[in-house]
Amino acid sequence: MVLGAVVYAPAYLVQHRLILLRGPVFTAAVQLAVPFTVRLGDWALDTAPAPSPTELLLLAVCCAGIALVTVQTSRSVEPVPSDR
């Protein structure tokens, strides 16, 4: 119960705040990075071996997908003229 109050409650609050501010697609994209961040954190803390080439490839693919969703371009979209 203490773990839930200390870890999960703040995580849910951040998640719902992100949903309100940036939308569910952005939030889901950011959440894809969490497992890789934990894995790299374990390696940085020397509690796990270095990531394998497969893990690094998956991290790169995940980061590319996150970038596709979260990086906003500066060009504006012109509305399509209607036939009416």
Keyword list:
4 helices, mainly alpha, 69% helix, 84 residues, flat
- Average pLDDT score: 82
- The string of secondary-structure elements, in order, is HHHH
Spatial gap, N to C terminus: 60 Å
Structural class by SSE content: mainly alpha
Q: Report Rg.
A: 18 Å
* Low confidence ranges: none
Largest sheet descriptor: none
Tell me the β content: under 5%
Q: Tell me how many strands there are.
A: 0
The number of helical elements comes to 4
Helix content: 55-70%
* Morphology call: flat
Set out the fold topology.
Blueprint: H1 2-22, H2 24-31, H3 34-44, H4 53-70
Q: How would you summarize what this structure contains?
A:
Helix content is 69%, strand content 0%. The chain has helices at residues 2-22, 24-31, 34-44, 53-70.
